[in-house]
């Protein structure tokens, strides 16, 4: 019985490690409205429907309003992060148009591992 339990624990550890390893870092840097990336940078409106490839992305339809909180920089400048209602995630900047700029200056900061995890109901999900 102990041997089966040890094998199951080992399997869970390997599965968890593989999941963490497979989480893609989309960029090492991002631009925000403040060092903590808590201030909204701009209010944008969707110009096209968008369905992201995984749970890290924000899905929306044409005309929806989104608040932008950060913009990936350097390696992947096309992706921004924002929210609509309770939903939060990445989306391509060319699928929206800026309606209102909310900050004067952008601050470039390093991304964190948690920037690239899925968040569902206040729990992180590893993809």
UniProtKB/TrEMBL annotation:
Residues 1-22 form the signal peptide. It is a single-pass membrane protein. Transmembrane segments: none annotated. InterPro entries: cTAGE_MIA/OTOR, SH3-like_dom_sf, SH3_domain. GO terms for cellular component: endoplasmic reticulum exit site; endoplasmic reticulum membrane. One of its GO terms (biological process) is endoplasmic reticulum to Golgi vesicle-mediated transport. It is found in: Endoplasmic reticulum membrane. Residues 39-101 form the SH3 domain. Keywords: Coiled coil, Endoplasmic reticulum, Glycoprotein, SH3 domain, Signal. Pfam families: SH3_2. Its main location: endoplasmic reticulum. This is MIA2 protein.
């Amino acid at each position: 019985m102990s041997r089966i339990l040890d094998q199951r624990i080992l399997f869970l550890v390997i599965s968890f490690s593989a999941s963490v390893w497979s989480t893609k870092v989309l960029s090492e840097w991002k631009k925000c409205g403040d060092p903590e990336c808590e201030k909204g940078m701009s209010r944008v409106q969707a110009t096209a429907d968008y369905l992201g490839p995984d749970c890290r992305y924000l899905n929306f339809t044409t005309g929806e309003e989104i608040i932008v909180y950060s913009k990936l920089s350097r390696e992947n400048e096309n992706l921004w992060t924002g929210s609509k209602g309770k939903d939060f995630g990445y989306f391509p900047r060319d699928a929206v148009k800026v309606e209102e700029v909310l900050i004067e200056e952008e601050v470039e900061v390093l991304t964190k591992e948690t920037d690239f995890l899925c968040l569902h109901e206040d729990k992180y999900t590893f993809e």
